[in-house]
Request: fold
Amino acid sequence: MNQQWQRVLFMAVAALMVLPAQAQSAMTPDMGKLTATAGVIQIEGASGGGLVPWATITGYGSRDSYGANLHYSYVGTQDYALGTYGAAVGIADRVELSVAKQRFSGSLTPLNHLRIEQDIYGVKVKLAGDLVYDQDSLMPQIAAGVMFKHNDGVGGLGAITNVKALNAASDSGIDYYLAATKLLLGQSLLLNLTVRATKANQMGLLGFGGDQGDRYQAMLEGSAAYLLNRKLAIGAEYRMNPHNLSTDNEKDYYDAFIAWFPSKTLSLTLAYVSLGQITVYNTKRQDGVYLSAQVGF
Amino acid sequence: MTMSIMLRRLNVLVWTGVLLAALMTVVPVQAQQTLQSEGNSLYQDFGGLPVLNKVVDDMLALALADTRIKETFKGVNMKRLATLITEQFCELTGGPCKYSGDPMKEVHQGLGLSNSQFNALVEDLQQAMDQSQVPSRTQNKLLALLAPMQRSIVSK
Reply:
């Protein structure tokens, strides 16, 4: 079912991407938003920075149109890798729908055959404020979002095939978040604050809830970016994580990024990320590189 | 457990600090510039009236060649429009001018301009400012002053 939905959404986005060349109708996307004001796709498939979902709506469709994009992101640390790909649609600069697949793998024995996959379906709605036009007040753009996450299981760990066998309370969960994003154009600065209610362990890659706790907790996430020019932004992010598993001394995430928008159809993000420890069996702090490419309109 | 909560709080504190520090390094520079603005306004950062004149002329030339918006200037006295926009930019940036046109809402009433058309003109303005080598920070300061006009200009 999940696979089918993914295929449908990917095909829909692919079709949308061909459409502009085909039809010169009212359905033609207007690409009416300003460069970079749609953010980039973050690691769970929503519009935002690298790690943190923002209040921005993906795509370059103005409030009279729509936009869509495809993305691939790769995180490589000393002992693990995480690939994410997905598609996202922004409608009327108001609603965002996204789908993403995460593939986590290990490279250090005995976890060198480890494979964990997760599907994430996201919905985000802009509630108030405007990122670009509210320059005469401190009002940020505010959006609420939901991420439906389903862990597809564990491979390469022998008898352990489900995160529940790693003490997670569930292999699926829902994250709820509220994001406020403020563009201070006069300062060439963008600030974001997100509060997320979640049970997810390592974003859900290690399941939801666990032997240390199975309640929703509020996590703070923040981003700050400086716009070097309208095609280049640098910034840093912080993302707090819960600690529900005794086998995972889960730490907060950090990144420092540079995002390049050569056009409205392409963006590239390069970051240095720190993910902390992933399991108590390997206490090395996992730092590495994050690379993300996005194409769309 | 308590230790890890303490560490986490510390983390949040440190990062809030980093964000604040980032803000504080930028904002004082801004404030300083505002303080000095008796002698060093945004108007002067632009290079005064000669540059504003050229930026507005270039913007309107780009707009007239821009398939997204050129139709919206049909029947408009472009020379008068250039004079009025220059006056407006000059006054907004702290220069010695006074905008002599009608309020933005009145002028754009009934034109049915869309948000993407508003942004198209913004992009033409950005390109015009690039052509005059206006630095990005200075460009953004003018755009910050113009952005709220979207509410009076866009009616579709």
